[in-house]
Design a protein that fits this description.
Number of helices: 19
Shape: extended
Distance between the termini: 47 Å
Number of strands: 3
Radius of gyration: 33 Å
Structural class: mainly alpha
Order of helices and strands: HHEHHHHEHHEHHHHHHHHHHH
């Protein structure tokens, strides 16, 4: 075409030349617009990838250090001069189970009354004999819950009395901050979180290899703690989120799919069903905090369900996820070719058989994808959970969905607001990594199952 345009001006008059010039100008403008559109698209994709890269880089750079924590490995001597407890009761002949249990509880109570901090202090002094730190300064670099670990070891195995056992003790949050360099070492003593002898003791133990940075498994196995921040973990929030997701899956999926099938395949097409469809679309756009208000008013104030319970959180998130499942399922049903329905009806299948035996199986990949994406979205919701009291401090793993609990996004919110910012900022990013990992796992499962179902259908 370019050759024709080049040849015509030589063959025609001025009118043709002007028309050809106009056409060339129009083509140049159209090509320029297409080029600009491609550039805008590339820039948009690059910007999106850049923002995602910045987000992940920021989270990973802050969160990964939190997966390691200062840990002191010391030889602990269970000194009989400190642990002054008589031998554990042995059941006597003729002693009732209740009496024996009472005697054991009394012995455990006496074991709890032992000053286990003295055992901790003696172990640290033995590891650093030249330290100038006093008792309080020594204990300030060890997590406060570690004394309970020694107590539990003794209660579980009283024969260790008088023996030396190698024990790993978590460093305190302040010691962890100091050793990781989260605190400016040039600040004056009045602005440091640890005293000078305690800082020197921590440095000495690190240099001698007795204190090291070990993987912080307790982030996954411990519950949240305010008295021992270095031992705080996500176990309670993780189980609470798991219960909530189970409620969402067991309620939102069957109700949402059944509603979509009825509205798309069986419901009469009239103004009433159009009104329902419009309202479902509107519900999908309602801010999540509104569902929290609804859940607090209906499930807690009216039905008197327990506050801060995963069952309530699951019901609220079910209401929030239902429109997504319904809309996605209806879209999948509409995408099924009409010829499939006509073929089934032509072979004598009833309307119900056509829908459930021929149409619905074709939509399984779309329904599954929408379901898992909806569940992943619900997993990251925080605002509605705050309104039903799931921001309460709960230092226990819920045994049932009716027990009080927290949730992963709420735990992130709570840690972000902790006053020990230079410690919990990294811990918050670590919790975000766990939450993102869980959401990515759900999406990976959705892609895998959708691929398998698409091959079968």
């Amino acid at each position: 075409m370019a050759d024709i345009f080049k040849s015509e001006p030589n063959a025609g008059g001025n009118a043709n030349a002007e028309r050809l010039a106009l056409i060339r100008s129009g083509l140049r403008a159209r090509h320029a617009r297409e080029k600009r559109f491609r550039i805008y698209g590339i820039l948009a994709i690059a910007a999106a990838i850049g923002f995602v890269a910045i987000l992940f880089t920021n989270i990973l750079s802050k969160g990964l250090p939190a997966f390691t924590q200062a840990t002191l490995t010391v030889d602990v001597f269970f000194d009989p001069e400190i642990v002054k407890v008589e031998p554990k009761p042995v059941r006597q002949d003729g002693q009732s189970p209740a009496d024996y249990r009472r005697a054991v509880l009394d012995w455990e109570r006496k074991a709890t009354m032992v000053n286990w901090n003295r055992v901790v202090e003696a172990a640290v002094r033995n590891a650093a004999p030249g330290t100038e730190a006093d008792t309080r300064q020594i204990l300030s670099i060890i997590e406060t819950n570690e004394r309970f670990k020694l107590r539990d070891m003794f209660v579980a195995n009283p024969s260790i009395l008088g023996q030396t056992v190698t024990v790993n003790m978590l460093g305190s949050a302040n010691a962890d901050n100091w050793l990781k360099g989260n605190i400016n070492r040039d600040l004056p003593d009045t602005q440091q979180q640890l005293s000078a002898p305690a800082r020197a003791l921590a440095d000495t133990l690190l240099e001698e290899g007795k204190m090291r940075f070990a993987f912080a498994w307790h982030i996954f196995t411990n519950v949240d703690s305010r008295s021992a921040p270095a031992a705080a973990g996500l176990a309670g929030a993780f189980v609470g989120s798991l219960y909530m997701m189970m409620v969402v899956i067991f309620l939102a999926v069957p109700i949402g799919v059944a509603s979509a099938v009825y509205l798309e395949e069986f419901a009469p097409k009239n103004r009433f069903t159009d009104l329902i469809e419009i309202n479902i679309n509107n519900l999908a756009a309602v801010p999540s905090i509104v569902f929290g208000l609804l859940g607090a008013a209906v499930f807690i104030n009216f039905f008197r369900l327990p506050l801060s319970a995963p069952i309530v959180g699951g019901l609220v998130l079910t209401l929030m996820t239902l429109p997504t499942v319904i809309i996605a399922t209806r879209s999948s049903l509409r995408a099924v070719p009409p010829s499939l329905r006509q073929a089934a009806l032509g072979l004598g299948a009833s309307k119900t058989q056509t829908v459930f035996h021929h149409v619905l199986p074709v939509t399984y990949p779309g329904i599954l994808t929408a379901t898992i994406i909806g569940v992943a979205q619900a997993l990251g919701e925080t605002a509605p959970l705050l309104l039903i009291g799931m921001n309460a401090f709960v230092a226990a793993v819920p045994a049932t969905p009716m027990d009080q609990s927290s949730a992963l996004p709420v735990q992130i919110y709570l840690w972000q607001g902790n006053e020990n910012r230079n410690f919990f900022e990294a811990r918050t990013s670590a919790a975000i990594i766990v939450l993102l990992g869980l959401m990515l796992a759900l999406n990976a499962i959705a892609i895998f199952l959708r691929t398998r179902l698409e091959r079968r259908t």
